[in-house]
Amino acid sequence: MAEPEAHSITVAIERRIDPTRTREATSWMQAGTDLATAFPGFLGSGWVRAGESSDLWYMLYRFRDLTTLEEWEQSSQREWWLESGRAFANEVRAERRTGIEGWFDAAGATHVDPREPEAVSTGPVQQPIPAAPPRWKQAIVIWIGFFPMNLLTSWALGFVPGFEHWPLVMRILLATVMLTPVMTYFVLPWVTRMLRPWLQRSS
User: Fold this and answer.
1) For 51, what's the count of Cα atoms within 13 Å in the CB-facing half-sphere?
2) Can you tell me the distance from the alpha carbon of 102 to that of 177, in angstroms, rounded to the nearest whole number?
3) Rounded to whole angstroms, how far apart are CA atoms 186 and 5?
4) Is position 63 within any domain?
5) Which of 59, 91, 119 is the last residue of a domain?
6) Do 101 and 140 reside in the same domain of the chain?
């Protein structure tokens, strides 16, 4: 069944990295991100590792919809990039998530700073990419982030001269334009980190 193009798509890829070529692998991952940024629909990318003693890394990237994702995945640039890393990066598994669920992928993994390639080490896989939390938990997390930000934005816009006389559509448009990037890049990632134990807890 085809994935809906109306939703953003997050792709999580598991790879094993040769621990003797960590510096090359780190530069290679960054090069992949740099290439993807030039493609329409690219919304962000990064990588995390399974644990301090694991050579299993998760790379995540997000695109606006299925069409833009496939343009990247089927591009000659990505094919060249993948080929250049085959000597030290072995893909284990790839998984796609649509919409907001992508925020909750690999929630328990450890972030790796690309400036510290020596942080990767060898060892057994410590955890797979966890399943997304139940939708009711996702809804609560989104509300926890959205409510105070919406309240703050509404309060701040109240100081704009004549703002209360703007048409309703224009007021909502301005508020959502201001809120969307803040929620996407700062609030949602922070809230999911703070609530990670609860999100991962089994029912």
Assistant:
1) 10
2) 21
3) 25
4) yes
5) 119
6) no
